Fold:
Amino acid sequence: MSKLQNNHVFTSESVSEGHPDKVCDQVSDAILDACLHHDSASKVACETAVTTNFLLNIGEITCCGWEAVDTEAIARQVVKEIGYDREELLFSHDSFDYECRIHPQSCDIAQGVCEGEGLFKEQGAGDQGMMFGYATRSTPSLMPAPIYYSHQLLDHLQCIRKSGDIDYLRPDAKTQVSVLHEQGVPKSITNVVISHQTDEVPLSRIRADLIQVTKDVLGPTGLLNDHTEYFINPTGKFVIGGPHGDAGLTGRKIIVDTYGGVGCHGGGAFSGKDPSKVDRSAAYYARYAAKNVVAAGLADKCEIQVAYAIGVAKPLSINVDTFGTGKVGEQNIQAVLEAGDIFDFRPASIIQDLKLLEPVGWSYRDTSVIGHFGRDLFPWEQTDKAEALRESLGIRERRVA
Structure:
């Protein structure tokens, strides 16, 4: 059930590209990108782990041209681009120890996800499980306000760090934004938390600079006011950070990656997985469908759950919840989705519809920071099927998000 129903404060966080877990997500997705470049039929489940001066890749990959995928070079390049390029940080692209323990995908799994090889003729889901997609009219991107503004703030901080506008910022950072909702509508930002790795500079300077950045980024929303509280590096110091300050693993920031705790989550991580894994592709498609439902004016909020059995193409169930905001019956929307004419939730159809094997204008690494949802460069963020949904439900008046 959507958390944003009544009058209360809801909080979501975002984490930077230099956060240890996000370092891992980016390396895993960069390796996926490389595999798909050599072989669009690659089956990839790549995990990354980092700690002080060490990076490990493990997992299962089957790729024609695997010998050309230099996982170590990819990992070092990603780490360099993030900004870990100084040995004193105790995690640097040119000095960390590297180890790889990747082997081919299990043949038992392969027979279920390759067309014509399993018990069924068509490509089946890469795993069992349930996935969720969510959309709300709260923000222009149809994302919940707390995660949307947390991402916006962090994205701006990353740009400032890389441009050198604030030269003492280092790669590891988190933001957190709390939004007061009245009847489910964002009314004000009650507090903002920023924990940002820095060089040794006075805390007073850090606080003054980052509060000003917050006002520059979030001020235009009209949600900041004289009562908004700011917590900047609230421990008093954040110099030791990155993989030296905390070990990292792929897939540990699934709430940051999705809706910030609003709505439900099936539990599966995204990064490092090729789109035969419905943990990833079906979650993207469920967001695509939910966003189009809201964009079509069929509801102000929509959450879609889809469930699969491994090796089986047809979803076991599709469920629609509009949290009392629907302009048409949930069962009617669900029937349209189950029919498969507008949104076909079979894995092969998802992959084809979103062109997930040959990304154009985006990469899987692009998804691994600042969330997998809410940015127009991704095909699952388009609202190109809103009118078809309206027509299928016999709605004449057009509503644009």
The mean pLDDT is 93. The chain has twelve helices and eleven strands. The first helix runs from residue 20 to 38.
